[in-house]
Structures are given as structure tokens and as C-alpha cells.
Records
---
Amino acid sequence: MSVHSSGRRTTSVGIPGTGAGYVHSKSGGRGRTAREAAAPAAIAQAVPKAGMFAPKHEKRFAKAVEALVKNEREKALRLFEESSVEDTSDRAVADDLFAGLLTAEAGRPEEAIPYLESVVSSETELPDELMTKYRVGGWLPLTVGHVEINVPWGSAAAALSLAGAYQTTGRVEEAIGVLQQLADTDDDPALLLALCDLYADTGAWDEIVDAAAGTKNDDDLTLQLRLFQARALREQGMNDAALEAYKDALRSKKRDPDLLNEARYRRGKLLLQLGKTSQAMKDLQTVYADDPTYEDVAELVRTDDA
């Protein structure tokens, strides 16, 4: 489950290994973007049984997966926690991953952090032995700005979840550090987008300009990156460069309408600031026609009429 910046709730469900899935959206009131880690959204449908001589932690893990399939989330969390305790040699990290995700889902980010830290600091790659053996697969749905991202369960999902838990508990610098480390070794634009979102929260505009350099408007995700970049350029007083970024952001109409409205609104505000009222109103009136409740666009348009 994730929450869109407009308040729309989105649930993603899929069957691992088949590529099948769907996204269901439900409208809601406007609110602040939620970036907290979501709980597991997909799970194996037929869970193999642990063998008689399997280690205790593996037996607990298998039972936890069964409970998760049945949507018995409290039971699953307890069993994943027990699996983590029983795994004294730290042979697996999947139990820590799911214990962390489910604890975060339960609204206890402080308790989730140690589990997720264990995953991120481990040399064991995900999916690990337990995930492979018990056919556990799926993705972590996250929302950054107007973009909804499905991140496959693995090291990147753990790092994003840990960053979300850090941010929720006020440890923003640590959240940035986690994503910086991951972005240094993984060029996934989803990671870069999450990192730029944190940079924007802390006003690190020069970091955004560096991180988003060379980004092209190829899809909704990269368009959101371009919007972060344009905002950072504007904050640094590089207005011409910001206008070029907004121009690129709007060159394709085959993008999420919320993203296009954001680009038009922010470009319109910048043009107003530069005294280019006629050009600004073209953008702002387009936004107003599509959504008269968008930010303060109604007030801006009426001011021009007066």
C-alpha cells in the first residue's frame, strides 16, 4: 500500500514469477506525500514445507511465509522475528527484511530500523537462500512526488525502507547517507529520485543539480527528476537553466497529468517572478482549467484578471 501526494491510495498485487499484477487506485483528499516503506505486496502462493531436519530459523521462516500468504500479518511478524533470533550465525537476511517491513507497516519505525540495518550492512545478497527455497518474491511499492515505484524485494528495497524509517524518526542525514551509498553502486533512477526527494527536504539544491545532471525526460520517473532539478536551479538563481529544464519537462504530453501540471505551475510562477506575465498566464490558466483547486493557482489567475 502506498499513498499518492493527492491522497490517492494505491494497492499493488502480483504473482511472483509470472509477471502478472495490477494496481488499484482510490481517490482521497489532498495531503502530504507519504514516503514510508510499504509492507510486502506479493508473496508466493504455494509455500514449500520445511524439512524435518531443517534449522529452527528456517522452520520459523517457512511458517511466517505461510502466515503472510493468509494475511495473518501479526503472526507472520512474530515468526519472522523468531526466525531472526534463531539465526545465530546470520546465514540469512530475509527474516530480518520481512521483520523490518512488517514492523514499519505496523507504525513502529524505531523497532524496524535494527532489522533493516542488519539487511543493509550484510554481505549476503537478496534474494537469499531462504527467499529462493520458499519461493518468496514480490515488490515494495513506494511513492515519491507524483511517481509510484515498484521496487523488487532485495537490497535496494531494504535500503529504501531503512531510509524511510530514518526519515520518519527525524534522522534525515542518515537516510541520505544510506541512499548515497546505494546510488554510488546502483544507477537505478528510482534510487536517485528518492535521494533527490530527501535533498529537497533539506535544501541541498547543489546536490540535486549534481545528482540529476544529464537526466532526460523519458518517462514519469525521469520527468519527476527533471522537476527536482528545475526547482534546484531556480533556488540557486539559475533562472534560464530552470526554464530550459521546465521546457524539457513539458515537451511530451504522454506523462502523468499531475506531473505536467506541476511543471506548468512552477514555470508559471517563475515567469511571473521574472515579470513575464503573458507567458506565465498561459501556463497558470492551463493548470486552472484542469484543476482550479491546484495550490494557489486560482488566486494567481484572478490577480491577473484584476
---
Amino acid sequence: MIVGIISSLAASALVVTVTIGWSNRRILVIYFVATLIARNSNIRVSMAVLLRVQEGGKYLLFHTPFTPSTYGPPGGVVKFTDAARPSLDRLEFRDQVHPAFRRDMTRDLRGFIPGRSLPAFIRWFQSGHDRESSIDCLRRELREELQEIGQPDMIGYTASLKYRFVRSVRQGPKRVSGESYRQFRIIEVYDLETSTHEEEQAKKRLLAAGRSSDRATLANSDEIRRGRCNELLIGAQACYLLGSKSLREDQPSLR
């Protein structure tokens, strides 16, 4: 009888272990790669948030100045605060140096860490401490990008916008073609809330900018998958507006 009870408990424990392992398989793969395969390798990390603005099967895309003639969704890289420096120093985080450096690119959560630091870096990021929230990142990026596409008069409408979480995509760590490092990214996607008349009007103004500005466009899902809208190129990150899979290689950036 005792043997039967022990066997039953062992079987239950095995089922629970397998269930937990399966539900967290992506995290386990990341830990395995980081601690065994790429422990001493360079890992490029990039934490970003994208905004999905869509209507009638078309998605709003803005010109991305660091990938010439390329368009992508509103949004960008999350920034960390000065208070995060001690934590990031312990993780041996090194900011990525940009050839076309600009003041607004400081404190981006885009840089390099040793592979052994990746699990701790993910835990730090998920804690939300000493960094922008996803919503704050979207608000800041949208203000900056409206200025860049020549629509500064619309910035005032962004303060009241609300956002709804769509998905979080984890990519990597995987090898990057032509580079000596692996790359790990977390990309969060949000929709605009349009539950009020004011929010609906703000969305319509953003879509109107896509029709009227030569630094913005509207593209359908087939064009996003192909990476081209007429003569314009569409960045691979736009694929995350459609789903969790990376459908194309990233295009080379000037930064």
C-alpha cells in the first residue's frame, strides 16, 4: 500500500513537472541557450513597443529615418532611467553605439550583454523597475514620430489616447546573419482604444496623416508580409502587427 502511495505521488509529481515545463518551454529554451550554449557570447538585447493602428484591413506605418526608404509601425525602444545604471552595470550591459548618434537615443534598452546575464536581464526587465512603462514608451515615441513626419499639430491629441495590450513576442536568442552576436528581443504590441468619440476622432486623425504625409503610409497585410508597398519598403518589425512570427530578416539599419 505504501509503495502504491509513493508511486502515485511520484507519478503526480512527474505530471506536474512536465506540465510546468511544457507551459514554460520558451523560457526554458532561453535559459538553456543563455547558460550553456551562449554563456560567454555577446547577446544583443532590444526591448521595444509597437502601436497597431488599423482600419479597413490597412495599417498605419511611419517612415523610419535610420532605415532609408523603409516604413514601420509607430513605436520604438523602451528607455531606462538613471536609477537603472547600477543594475545594468551588474549585468554588464553596454549601450549600443550609434554612428548617427542623437540626444534622444540615450538610455535606450538596446545594447549588449554576456549570455550568462540574459536570464537576470529578463527578470529585471519584467519587474518594470527603473524603466519606462510600455504605455509611456508609446506616448513618447508617438510624439517624436509625429514631429518627424511633419504632423506636429497632432501631438496635442496623443495625451488622451488609451492603449490595449495585444501580444508580447520573444525572439531568440538566435544568431544574426553577418554578425558575431546572438540577438534577443521582447516586442510588445498595443492597439488604440476607441471606446469614446474623442478616441475615435484621434484614431481617424492618425490614419489621415498616413494618407496625406509623404513620410507615412497605409499598407495591407499582404504588403506587410511581402515587405513592399508600391515603391516603399516595409520593415520586418511590421510583421508583428499581424502575429508573433518573424516573417522576414531585418533590414540593415544605420544605427
---
Amino acid sequence: MTITGKWILGLSIWLSIVWAGTALAAPPMPARIGGTVTIEGIQLTEASDSGDTLSVTRQDGSGYTPKAEDSDGLNAHNWYIINVPIHDAKIQPGGAKPGDKAVIHVYRNGKALKIVSPNRGEFVVGPNGSTNRIDIVVGK
């Protein structure tokens, strides 16, 4: 094998190791929740959700890092989508642990609204990469 061939082989092996290490250092896939939002009997649409923000916190009210929120409005299917970050001790220590209870919050123009379904806005965080439908009903 020539010096050039050995150099290319060595570089290929080094890049494979670096790439594998980078892939292993990625944070876990989030636990995604999504669904419809109904406020006082009226289901929100992409056109009618102006001023609404949805977020998810721990039961004690503290937030996750990165934040778990949908502040850009409903999508074209009139659904909210929130990615709940999953805990990893080294890469994402501010994430939720699968199986933990979390709380959904709905705000209209910065004012917290009362969620009646799911009960008190509570749900169980799914495993990384999971997707769960949680339709939200806000009452008076």
C-alpha cells in the first residue's frame, strides 16, 4: 500500500470514529404531544389561535431545558405540537424522564387559562421518540 493509500485509509478510520462519536452525543428524540384545542366550546383553528401559547412543565411548575412549548400557533391541520425534551444525564439533563407526570398550560395573551381535559392538564411523558395525541379542552 502506498503512503497516499495509508493516509486515506487512516483518514477514513478517523472520520468514522469522529462521526460515530458525534452521532452518539446527540440528545434523545423528544416525546411529542399534539392535538386539538377547544376553548369554551369552540375548537381553535390556525386562523383563530392568535395570542395563544401552549407549554409543558414539570408538576412543580418548573420548565424543561430546552423549553417544551408551542408559541407559533396551530399548524395547517389545526393542531398544536409540543416536543418534550427527554432527560439524558450528560447531554440533556434538563429534560423529562419517561413516565414522569407533566402539565400542559394554555395562555391567551399571557393569561393562564383553566384546562379541564386532560384533568388539570396532567399527562404522563412518553418514551423518547413517542407521539401521543392529547386533545385539550379549556373551560371557565
---
Amino acid sequence: MKEQKLSEEETEIEILNEACKEISLKNKLTEELKAKLQKKLPKTFDEALQLVYAKRVKKYIFKPSCRVLWVVSGRKDEYQVIPEANFCSCNDFYFRVVGGKKKLCYHLIAQKLAEALKIYEEKKLTNGEYEKMMEKWRGKIKKAVC
């Protein structure tokens, strides 16, 4: 049973990643692909797409290191998203995704869609500002877990 859940999760993530590759290549989200994603991610896809079109996804690039930090503004707060790890700092991720009740949170879906569609706010900052931002995120994670 647990193996089946993991397989379903991978499939959902793979479908999203493949869709994002297709979006990047075509430079748009086709109606066919949108319908497929709505079917596979019924509630979260629409919420994520709303965040993208509302330009609530931010990409911070720190110089000179070229570190990247993705932040998504949700309903209640801003959340750090690490797309390579399929990770989000929101409570939904901690309690439902990690707990196996959901496959992905909508912040993570929004980041992936925003990057593929190239619809996000980009900010260039210094490496010193990176450390300040990471202190903020470390504090949020500690508060969320305690």
C-alpha cells in the first residue's frame, strides 16, 4: 500500500514535470495540457495557476554566487520552494504531503508552472542579503515544526 502511494506521488510529480517541459518548449499552456493537469491535480492545479497569473511567484538571484531562492506568496504567508527537491516550507506540505494525505502543495505546483511559463517576479540581490533571507526562512521553519 505504501509502495503504491509512493508510485502515485512519483507519477503526479512526473506528470507535472513533463507538462512543464512541454509548456517551456511551446512557450504556453495549451487547453489540452491544462485539462490533463486539472484532471490529475483537481483542486491544487487551479489554485496554483491563480498564483502564477497573479504574479505571486518570486525568483531571487544572489550575486556573485548565483544562488537562487524561490518564494511563493500563498493565502496566509510567503513560502520557500525548492523545486529540485519538490519541497515547500508551508504547513500543508509538512502535515499533508509528508503525511501522505496529498501529493503536492499548490505552492510547489505554482513555482513549477511559473518557471515554465516564465511568469514570475525576478529580483537580483547580493550574497549578504541571501544570508538575511535564509535566517528568516530558518526561523519560519522552526516555528512551523515546534
